[in-house]
C-alpha cells in the first residue's frame, strides 16, 4: 500500500511541482496519472521510487517511510519497485538477456535461478527468441518489452511507469498495455503516468489527475479528461 500525506515538492530552483498531495493506493490497483505537461506527474511518480525526496509530508510504501529511508538503502527499495521509462534506459552494450539478468546478479542470485527467472519474464513479454540481441537490434516496442521484463524480474509488488508508450506508435502501445494488464492481473500494483487519451479512455482504470501540482480529480474507471 502507498500513502502520501500532505506531500509537497519544491525543487532547488524554487519551482513547487507538487503541493498538499494526499493519496492512498492499495496493493493490486492500476492507476493512471494524467494531467497537462509540467503539471507534476513525473514528480509524483519519482517521489514513489525515491528518485526525488519530498520537501514536506510523509510517503509510506509498504511500511517503508520514504522520508527516513537512507540513501544507501534506496537500492533495496528498488528491488520491490520496478520502474519503466519512456526512453527504456537499457544498457546498450549488453544483450537482452544480460540487461535483465543484471538486476538479479547485483543481488547475488544463483546462476541457475537467474537463468530460470530471466527466461520466465522473456516468455511473459514474448521475447524469448531475442535473448541474444542487443538493444540496437530491436524495435522501440521490443526495447520497451525488455525494460518491462527487467523491471519485473525481481517480482516487485509495485511497477511504476513514466510515459511507457510515449515513444511508441499506437499498435505497439496496445501490446505494451496488454503486458501491464497481465502484470496487474497477477496482483502487482501498476502506476502509470501517461498522455495517452486513447489508452486511458479504453482500458478503464483509476485516474488521478494532476494540475499545477495539485490533485484535481481521483476517479475509479475515470476518463482522460483533456483535449490532448
Ligand atoms: N529536477 C527539476 N528541477 C527543477 N524543476 C523541475 C525538475 N523536474 C521538474 N521540474 C519542474 O516541476 C514542474 C513539474 O514537472 P514534472 O516533470 O513533474 O511534470 P509532468 O507533469 O511530468 O510534465 P510532462 O508531462 O511534460 O512530463 C515543472 O514546472 C518542471 O519544470
TrEMBL record:
Subcellular localization: Cell membrane
Domain ABC transporter intervals: 2-228
GO biological process entries: cell division
Record GO terms (molecular function): ATP binding; ATP hydrolysis activity; transmembrane transporter activity
Entry keyword Transport: yes
Pfam families: ABC_tran (PF00005)
Mode of membrane association: Peripheral membrane protein
Domain of life: Bacteria
Swiss-Prot/TrEMBL keywords: ATP-binding, Cell cycle, Cell division, Cell membrane, Membrane, Nucleotide-binding, Transport
PANTHER family: CELL DIVISION ATP-BINDING PROTEIN FTSE, IMPORT ATP-BINDING PROTEIN
Oligomer and partners: Homodimer. Forms a membrane-associated complex with FtsX.
Family to which the UniProt record says this protein belongs: Belongs to the ABC transporter superfamily.
Name of the featured protein: Cell division ATP-binding protein FtsE
Annotated source species: Lentibacillus populi
